[in-house]
Amino acid sequence: MAGTKARPAARPARPGATSVAVFRSKSRFTGPGTALGRFQRGLERPLTPYYLILGSSALILVLGLVMVFSASQIEARTLGLSFTFFFTKQLTAVVLGSGLMYVAARLPVRLHRALAYPLLIAVLGLLLLVAVPGVGKAVNGNQNWISLGGSFQIQPSEFAKLALVLWGADLLARKQQMKMLDQWKHLLIPLVPMAVLLLTLVLAGGDMGTAMIICALMFGLLWISGAPMRLFGGAAAVALGFSTLLIALVPHRLGRIQCIGATSVPSDGSCWQAVQGVYALAGGGLTGRGLGASVEKWGQLPEPHTDFIFAVTGEELGLLGTLSVLALFAALGYAGIRVAGRTRDPFIRYAAGGATTWIMAQAMINIGAVLGLLPIAGVPLPMFSYGGSALLPTMFAVGMLLCFARSEPAARAALAARSKRTRKNALGRLIGLPQRTIARLGKARQRRER
Q: Is the separation of the CB atoms in 76 and 86 below 8 Å?
């Protein structure tokens, strides 16, 4: 048409134009202003591991107290006790454990390291006392308890995990500083002989579940120390063969292996606990029957408030409740791995990695047994199941992780800056300044410091 300019032809696409367009389209979801970008920046902050450890462990403890109260009521009445008997004991253990966690979080790293040998010697002595008649006590066929009078008793094998973490971390850190870990004999000796000694004392009482966790902890320390795969594989093969022998020699352990994946009770009545745990999870559905409304805890499911509390959680809170528990443990594991991976202190690396391996391995063994994917090992869910002997060393280990998370230089600087701002804001509120004025003064001070 006259008087109009012809529209220029479309410019041919340049090489790489498609990739730029794709990148821009993806940046709408992964860019710095998106929710995912903000989440990634939040994970990179120096105090993120500290708050993840503190928050996830606190939520696990609170939810565990709620579920212990719900799952233990019928068991308590069956034994002629009050409804709140097990809950009161667990609450007492949580209060004591909170004190231990606070102390462990405030202790300097060098004092954690100094505890390694005294704690190991004390644990070895307690494990020997378990076998002394009149001192040791058998529970459910396992001679691994020491009675303290009344209804209070401790299980020394639970403290053996903490002792191995601290002692193994101190040992490997000293050998790394002397550049001795490139020789296989220094990797294995004396770490493996000491772990074998602890395993022997624990297995003498019949506690196969704790022995599995100690094995996992030993392999975790070897993995973090950089053991070559052939050495790691050889040690794993020896441990597997020894475990197979122990299982084959004890009939009830072999029966537990045969119950993996069972969905119905055989005619001989075996696999009852495993099957009832699956029934409890299946009965919960998506949202659960409701808190306190479990059917399986009315005598059908053995150990509902200890080893199988996860099954009662699934029945009462449903799939959403169990996924929430898994998410909390995943957050705790992520934070522990990040603390171990970002530090330059070899002791912190080994101790944080060992403690994280311990807690995560125990959680996997317990949950795997409830789901029917692993044999029932008789280990509690960390900080969730009933039991003070398991709770106290675990909370100390969590406090240790908090100490390590605070000890990073960037985290120390961030905590110091936050504490300084908090004190100045508190002073401003004390003398009556408005919040807007306090914020304006803070910004002016930051400009002057620049």
A: yes
Angle between the N-to-C axes of helices 388-407 and 346-370, in degrees from 0 to 180, rounded to the nearest 10? 140
* 171 contact partners, CB below 8 Å, separation of at least 6: 116, 190, 191
pLDDT single digits (tens) 241-273? 888 887 777 777 788 888 998 888 888 778 999
Please tell me the distance from the alpha carbon of residue 363 to that of residue 382, in angstroms, as a whole number.
Answer: 6
Measured distance between the N- and C-terminal CA atoms of the chain, rounded to whole angstroms: 64
H-assigned helices in 107-207: 109-114, 116-129, 156-177, 184-188, 191-204
- The residue with tokens 């804001």 is 425
CA 135-137-141 angle, to 5 degrees, is 155
C-beta neighbour count of 193 within 10 angstroms = 10
Q: What is the pTM of this model?
A: 0.86
Instruction: Give DSSP secondary structure letters for 48-66.
Output: HHHHHHHHHHHHHHHHHHH
Nearest to 165 by CA among 251, 237, 224, 231: 224
Decide if 420 contacts 126 (C-beta within 8 A): no
DSSP helix/strand/coil, 139: strand
Q: Tokens standing for 391?
A: 């709770």
DSSP for 71-108 reads HHHHHHHHTT--TTHHHHHHHHHHHHHHHHHHHHHHS-
